[in-house]
Write a structure and sequence with these properties.
It contains four helices and 16 strands. By secondary structure, it is α+β, with helices and mostly antiparallel strands. It has a single domain, classed as Penicillin V Acylase, Chain A (4-Layer Sandwich). A six-stranded antiparallel sheet has the order 13-2-3-14-15-16, covered by helices on one side. A hairpin with a 3-residue loop joins strand 2 and strand 3. Helix 1 packs antiparallel against helix 2.
Length: 247
């Protein structure tokens, strides 16, 4: 995919009942959107066996900083972020670098939660993690605050202590209602992310992409209206797609 310039600050995530995580992004910077499966580094144990130091990852990476906005590793751990809504800044790491570290080194949600609670971040951020066993958590992070670990299944652009915008609350409630619908399927949920109030064609707040990660299958679908690009660890193929955001 090619670099796409957008100006927005909206991200939505949800954990679906069939153990998948969907993220939906409108980003505030010029970025290059691409997916990659990087080779794992290895080191030798005293018994001569080799183990992976970093895991293979398929991710929506953000350059030139090299971090991950969302992604999944070969062990079936998926992670995605949303902006937390706060304006305060502090000493800490960029969340996209933290997510890359988590995906390259953590095997399941428990490990990911411990890492996210240990590493300070510079801005208010929300992170949702899901593993192939169906374990999940949403964390509210920020400078100078204790991490809050929740079982929230839908995450948008606010935290519990913040004063959210009505638009952020409306999007979250829309997703929660959909998740509570007993007739809901992953396909119907994903379709909902391609329609208002979740999908936007606004010149100032365009939806950049929707990604559906399936940790148990090791697959991800990057989705736009009329286009679906699938990737997996067993059959990853280098390619590119350019989307026209003016329509």
């Amino acid at each position: 995919m090619r670099p796409t310039s957008v100006s927005a600050a909206r991200l939505d995530n949800f954990v679906a009942p069939n153990k998948s995580i969907t993220c939906h992004a409108n980003l505030q910077i010029v970025l290059e959107t691409f997916s990659h499966a990087q080779p794992a580094s290895k080191y030798s144990l005293s018994n001569g066996a080799e183990t992976a130091l970093t895991l293979k990852v398929i991710a929506k990476a953000q350059r030139p900083w090299g971090g991950c906005v969302d992604g999944m590793n070969e062990e079936g751990l998926a992670a995605s972020i949303t902006l937390g809504g706060g304006r305060s800044q502090g000493r800490g790491f960029s969340i996209i670098l933290v997510i890359r570290y988590v995906l390259e080194t953590c095997h399941h949600v428990e490990q990911a939660v411990k890492a996210l609670c240990r590493i300070p971040v510079a801005l208010a951020q929300n992170v949702t993690v899901l593993d192939s066993a169906g374990n999940y958590a949403t964390l509210f992070l920020g400078p100078g605050q204790r991490p809050i670990i929740t079982r929230l299944r839908a995450c948008v652009n606010h935290q519990r202590a913040a004063r959210p915008s009505s638009f952020s609350v409306a999007r979250q409630q829309f997703i929660l209602r959909a998740l509570e619908d007993p007739s809901m399927s992953l396909e119907k949920l994903t379709d909902g992310f391609l329609r208002p109030p979740l999908y936007s064609v606004s010149a100032t707040h365009p939806t950049l992409y929707t990604a559906v990660y399936r940790p148990a299958k090791g697959r991800v679908d990057y989705i736009w209206p009329g286009k679906r690009w699938s990737q997996g660890f067993e059959d990853f193929q280098i390619g590119e797609y350019t989307h026209n955001f003016t329509h």
